[in-house]
Design brief:
alpha+beta; five-stranded antiparallel beta sheet; disordered N terminus; globular; 157 residues; binds zinc ion; single chain
Length: 157
């Protein structure tokens, strides 16, 4: 049973945001809250302030996984015995049960499948990809989409 307590050094803040220093007003604060939504039914995937996902483990057991949706923390909890380094079979919306697997896209740190949810930081919702392999912290918002969020934020002042 692996309790992933450590904060990964390569937080998504570093991976996703650091390459694009548009200027000082674009900075998303570490710890910014991300609302997460199903790309199929648009309902919120949050439960107890965590991203809650129906999870099918490699043996076909159905359970759940919860991810911390804060920018600087990406810890997983699950009621399944997930093995570090193993890919889950599927992640699904707990409202409509649709699979959140993102077709062809693969993790940049291997060939694992990735799942996709929509995240909203203000009024814009953009795809957020994350790896389905337990223990892998790879995740991504496309730079174009990141820019949308930033533009939307900048409209508000
Ligand atoms: Zn749904
Ligand atoms: Zn991965």
């Amino acid at each position: 049973m692996s309790q992933d307590k450590s904060r990964p050094k390569d937080s998504w803040q570093e991976i996703v945001w650091d390459e694009h220093n548009y200027n000082e007003r674009t900075v998303l604060k570490s710890g910014s809250f991300l609302g997460c939504y199903c790309p199929h039914c648009s309902r919120s995937l949050m439960k107890d302030n965590l991203l809650h996902l129906v999870t099918i483990d490699p043996d076909g057991n159905t359970g759940w996984m919860q991810l911390n949706p804060y920018l600087n923390a990406f810890e997983r909890k699950s009621n399944l015995q997930l093995t570090e380094g193993e890919e889950v079979t599927d992640l699904r919306c707990w409202h409509c049960q649709a699979s959140l697997r993102a077709g062809e896209r693969k993790c940049d740190r291997g060939d694992s499948h990735v799942a996709c949810v929509l995240v909203g930081i203000s009024t814009v919702r953009v795809p957020f990809y994350f790896c389905m392999r337990t223990g892998c912290h790879w995740h991504l918002i496309d730079p174009d989409d990141e820019h949308k969020i930033i533009l939307d934020d900048s409209m508000e002042w």
